[in-house]
Automatic annotation (TrEMBL):
It is found in: Cell membrane. Its main location: membrane. It is a multi-pass membrane protein. It comes from Luteipulveratus flavus. Signal peptide: none annotated. Residues 426-445 are annotated as: Disordered. Coiled coil: none annotated. It holds the Pfam family GT87. The lineage of its organism: Bacteria, Bacillati, Actinomycetota, Actinomycetes, Micrococcales. The keyword Membrane applies. This is Glycosyltransferase 87 family protein.
């Protein structure tokens, strides 16, 4: 198997941003240092510990709301809004679908997680309960981030330090504590880890569960299926699809057995108009009205377009695109054609840009746009409270357009980076057709 490029095996040697940052701890790794002697678990453990510090910075960023509450418009002006305290309903529900429970607006498994934490929250005054729930949620999210970091390092076990793209990303500070999206991200990362170890049934179950926690991991499941079909791994393809179907069916049956409607959140999405971050909201700001039914059709077309592009890339004879590249490109297509791109969508792409081996320069450019948007969207959301203080609609439309371009650029840089990996592979010893598809920085597919 050919050696991975230097910037992937030892990032401080080949990535200028990492090299400069490493001066804080003594500079880049030495010329004669032994690379790869420590197991990937060492990098996973160290990076997961650092990730907990980054999540703690996210708690600090939301300090105003922790002290004063999450009521609007204060939470908007201070950019500390979070969905977590909103789960603290007046009474503990018997099921996630009781009263105004989370099952009406959240996918099945995320609704269950939200409901369980609500039961664990001690009773008290409104603000005290919200603080307790937020604290419990922050602990759970920190653990989910750690799981994601370790799983990403395990997938890229020959280049485990790429998991730093998850652990040290600036978007963790702003987006991680907004909702429980990290639940779906962690399940997705574990599914990729299982697939990389050729546990296809387990991979299917985990990816299916991820899809029932958040919808976006369905894109990754499609990418896994495309790669398995391309590489003539039909038996493993059947296992991964069967595992995913099992997880979905069990989740739906569990919800129905508790008297809930597991499709409620999807029905709510069908009736939803253009939301924050969507290009269709930019059109609406420009006085172009698009009905909810048309937006639903556009979103479905986006999924179909993503599938077509995924098939095209998977069958490309010149570039050996793997699961991370296919997933990121398809996910970006789904995002930019969807009804909304929430601020926490930044979390969805972190494991994928790590496994694509993206340069930190590109990561930080995208993250800078994302953090700027994070501040701007709350200022725009406050328009109904104080239009003079809020971000003007044209400025928000411009900021949203820049953000959309940043996501497209992220996918483009991921595909362009494949050339470097292919060139490094070409310089190595001859490999079998199956080994030629191995990712240096991604899933061994």
């Amino acid at each position: 198997m050919p050696r991975p490029p230097a910037r992937l095996a030892a990032p401080s040697r080949g990535d200028d941003v990492v090299a400069q940052a490493s001066e804080v701890v003594g500079g880049p790794v030495g010329r004669y240092a032994a690379i790869g002697r420590r197991p990937w678990t060492y990098a996973g453990a160290l990076l997961s510990a650092l990730a907990s510090v980054v999540v703690a910075l996210g708690v600090l960023q939301k300090n105003h709301c922790v002290r004063s509450g999450w009521s609007t418009p204060g939470s908007l002006w201070r950019a500390c809004y979070s969905d977590l305290p909103a789960a603290v309903t007046p009474e503990h529900g018997a099921t996630p679908w009781s009263g105004g429970g989370p099952g009406h607006s959240q996918p099945v498994l995320t609704a269950f997680l939200t409901w369980v934490l609500r039961w664990l929250t001690p009773s008290g005054s409104g603000l005290a309960e919200q603080r307790w729930y937020f604290a419990l949620g922050a602990v759970v999210i920190a653990l989910l981030v750690a799981v994601t970091v370790v799983a990403t390092a395990g997938v890229a076990r020959s280049t485990p330090w790429l998991a730093a793209h998850v652990a040290l990303s600036p978007v963790l500070v702003t987006a991680a504590l907004v909702s429980f999206d990290m639940f779906g991200v962690a399940l997705m990362a574990l599914g990729l880890l299982a697939w990389s170890r050729r546990h296809s049934t387990s991979a299917g179950v985990l990816l299916g569960a991820a899809t029932m926690a958040r919808t976006f991991p369905a894109v990754v499941l499609v990418a896994v299926a495309l790669v398995a079909w391309r590489d003539d791994r039909r038996r493993e393809l059947r296992h991964v699809l069967a595992g995913a179907a099992l997880a979905v069916v069990l989740s739906l049956v569990l919800a129905w057995s508790m008297g809930g409607d597991p499709l409620a959140s999807y029905q709510l999405w069908t009736d939803q108009g253009a939301g924050y971050g969507s290009p269709w909201l930019v059109a609406q700001i420009a006085h172009v009205s698009i009905p909810a039914a048309a937006l639903t059709a556009l979103a479905v077309i986006g999924w179909l377009l993503a599938l077509v592009v995924g098939v095209y890339l998977a069958t490309d004879r010149e570039r050996a695109f793997g699961i991370p590249q296919l997933s990121l490109v398809m996910l970006v297509i789904v995002m930019v054609t969807g009804k909304t791109i929430p601020v926490q969508a930044a979390l969805w792409v972190l494991p994928l840009i790590a496994l694509c081996g993206l340069r930190w320069r590109d990561h930080l450019i995208w993250a800078a746009v994302e953090v700027t948007y994070f501040a701007g969207v709350w200022m725009y959301a406050g328009t109904s409270f104080n239009a003079d203080r809020a971000l003007p609609a044209p400025a928000y439309a411009l900021l949203t357009s820049v953000r959309l371009l940043a996501y497209v650029g992220l996918a483009w840089r991921c595909l362009a980076g494949q050339r470097e990996l292919d060139d490094a592979r070409a310089e190595g010893p001859a490999a079998s057709p199956g080994a030629a598809r191995t990712r240096f920085a991604g899933v061994a597919d």
